[in-house]
Amino acid sequence: MKPPVRKNQRGFSINLTPMLDVIFQLVIFFLVSSTLIKQEVSMPLQLPEAKTFMPAAESDNRKITLNIPATGQVYFGNTLLPPDKLLEQLPKIFRREVEQRGEAAELRIRINKDVPYGPVSPILVQAAKAGIWKVSFAVIEKQEP
């Protein structure tokens, strides 16, 4: 059978529909993921000041972020962890992260400068029990007069 001959056909054409579908999927993915990342640090806190500190190193690991505002309540990202169930929920959160990341699991604590050490102590104990040894506190650089 002879293939059909098309007259007046110039060049070739590319179907761009699949490429546009992929581009729209990527745009949606990055919009959603950037929104989730912003939620971790979107809680406005007055962080403590420090003269000496180590700048946060860029890493591929997603850190477990706990926010503690002036009220002393503990938030996992923007989700309030009820004070009466805090010691039940933290080990579950920490164990899940250790199972996923192993020794690379990291904990970042963002705490208001007016909060005493009391709420932080049980968090550090639970992190150590779960095997999280990389713990950092968010601070801001103290401006010298």
Based on the model shown, name its key terms:
two-stranded parallel sheet, 5-stranded mixed beta sheet
Helix and strand layout, with pairings?
Elements: H1 17-40, E1 49-50, E2 64-68, E3 74-76, E4 79-81, H2 86-101, E5 106-111, H3 120-130, E6 134-137, E7 140-141
Parallel strand pairs: 1-7, 2-5, 5-6
Antiparallel strand pairs: 2-3, 3-4
Question: Can you put this structure into words, describing what you see?
Answer:
It is a single chain. Helix 2 (86-101) runs parallel beside helix 3. It contains three helices and seven strands. Helix content is 35%, strand content 17%. With 145 residues, it is an alpha/beta fold. It has helices spanning 17-40, 86-101, 120-130, and strands at residues 49-50, 64-68, 74-76, 79-81, 106-111, 134-137, 140-141.
Q: How many strands, what sense, and barrel or not for the largest sheet?
A: 5 strands, mixed
Q: How many β-strands, per DSSP?
A: 7
Please provide the ordered H/E string of secondary-structure elements.
HEEEEHEHEE
Unreliable residue stretches: none
How far apart are the first and last residues' alpha carbons, in Å? 89 Å
Question: Structural class of the helix and strand makeup?
Answer: alpha/beta
Outline:
The chain is α/β, with parallel strands linked by helices and 145 residues long. The chain has helices at residues 17-40, 86-101, 120-130; strands at residues 49-50, 64-68, 74-76, 79-81, 106-111, 134-137, 140-141.
